[in-house]
Amino acid sequence: MNRLRPAAVALAACLVAAPAAAQVAAPATEKIDYDAIYKIKDEGFTHSQVMDTASWLTDVYGARLTGSPNIKAAGDWAVKKLTEWGGQNARLETWGDFGTGWQNTRFSATVVAPNPWTILGAPKAWTPGVEGPVTADAVYAPMTTDADLERWKGKLKGKIVLAMPIREVKASFDPLASRYTDDQLKKLEEIDPTGAAGRRTYDRSAFAFATKRLQFLADEGVLASFEPSRGGDGGTIFVQQGGAYNPTAPQMFVRFPANVPPQVVLAAEHYNRLARTLDKNVPVSIELNIKNETQPNQTAFNVIAELPGTDKADEIVMLGAHFDSWHSGTGATDNGAGSAVMMEAFRILKASGVKLRRTVRIALWSGEEEGLLGSRAYVKNTFADRETMALKPAQGKITGYFNVDNGTGAIRGVYLQGNEAVEPIFHAWMEPFKSLGMTTLTLQNTGGTDHLSFDAVGIPGFQFVQDELEYETRTHHSNMDVYDRLQAGDMMKNAVIVASFVYDAANRDQMLPRKPLPKAQPPQGQTTPARATN
């Protein structure tokens, strides 16, 4: 797009000077083809299509909830685009039965008494709608203990229930967006041998009560339940799936009562206004209209395409990102950004004319938000079963996998996933991009995204370190995760860096070094989202 050209020109100023300075610092044992890197930079900075791709994925196709019509339409478009760019065997590759697809097609909530005003909110995924519009009384009934459930028993049928306490909203004195400082990047290079710093803890009793509360509301026959956004303010709403968390796997899976009521997340300020009014014994009536459509028995897919290699064509290097998103925004930073960057890197490798010894394969995953489902299924079907560690021949033919899934921020380095042997290799590969702010290699891992599916079966899998910008404060799983929050300059840099790393991996004489093969990981607890069979 024309409006991107000034950013492209500014970034292109780095093209000439960076290689000469970097060449001295590169280890003598690692060959760097600076001519090829120059071609990649030139194509990526002066002919970028990354923002146009991102706009198609977000503005045109919108939210891409796995199993929804939107993700299928976006997937068809991606296959067509990858083919136009010269990708071979581009396809939607199915990986299994996902279960019920879901899409919200209409939502409105309006206070009609005592004073009319419009409520800002969004329904949770896979919850039912309301045949409406229908008007009902609201009840502020915060429930945090079993005694609260007993107090409200028999009093909520047909009501719109505000079942959570008021969430305090404080003034924010910290910036919503920030980049890594040099000190923070240095700190990132340090390792905690105990692993405690990256270990999450969960209040299982709170999860168990959430399930009990939702079952109580369902049994009471409430019309709908409202709750405040878990974070954010100023109209930002963080909303994911409905149901209640499963204590055996709280980070991924949910339970649904058979008669689950509609669940709606409100902007904290609007929820609090309703709650304070009701707490003054002032009746509040709300007109509610929620139309959700379901599609049973959906087959899920990943988007796959290849650029064939030359003398090492039977070996592959992969790049990927998750294609799916949540539904209240358009999935721009999570993870339209990653998908657009990977598609652009794929395009750059073809359009720049650089030669690829190994085959390059792109994969855009579905089901990531429900537990890395698409990448796990692909790895199991193609490379190895992590539950038994039974390896397929292809497991020894993939040199590595590169992933982007931390928003729109600039790449600042690589999480090495504990692979010390790869550090000097990546140090050399990183040299041409230090002028673009890529300076950090850390043995640490970042969790929760698709490189873990590869690492789990002994394949070198890497996630790039990125500036978080507004990721956790504004966009991650929120209604503000839209195209306008994307940063064009960062996206262009990222595509060039990824394309260069993939090029280096595809042309290196040896495959990337590997860590010892992990132990088998037998399944524990629930392995399929309860939502998928609801």
How are the elements arranged and paired?
Layout: H1 5-12, H2 14-25, H3 34-46, H4 50-60, H5 69-84, E1 88-113, E2 117-118, E3 121-123, E4 130-140, H6 146-152, E5 160-162, H7 182-188, H8 204-220, E6 224-228, E7 244-245, E8 254-255, E9 263-266, H9 268-279, E10 285-307, E11 312-322, H10 332-351, E12 358-365, H11 373-382, E13 384-385, E14 390-391, E15 398-403, E16 411-415, H12 423-430, E17 440-442, H13 451-455, E18 461-466, H14 471-475, H15 488-507
Parallel strand pairs: 4-5, 5-6, 6-9, 11-12, 11-15, 15-18, 16-17
Antiparallel strand pairs: 1-2, 1-10, 3-9, 4-10, 7-8, 10-12, 13-14, 16-18
Instruction: Classify the fold: give the CATH topology of the largest domain.
Output: Aminopeptidase
Distance between the termini: 43 Å
Q: Give the name of the CATH superfamily of the largest domain.
A: Zn peptidases
What's the overall average pLDDT, rounded?
Answer: 90
Taken from the alpha-carbon principal axes, the silhouette is: elongated
Pick out its properties.
534 residues, alpha/beta, Aminopeptidase, 2 domains, 14-stranded mixed sheet, two-stranded antiparallel sheet, 15 helices, disordered N terminus
What does this molecule look like?
This protein has 534 residues and is of the alpha/beta class. The protein is 32% helix and 23% strand. Strands 1, 2, 3, 4, 5, 6, 9, 10, 11, 12, 15, 16, 17 and 18 form a 14-stranded mixed sheet that branches. A two-stranded antiparallel sheet has the order 7-8. The longest helix has 20 residues, at 332-351.
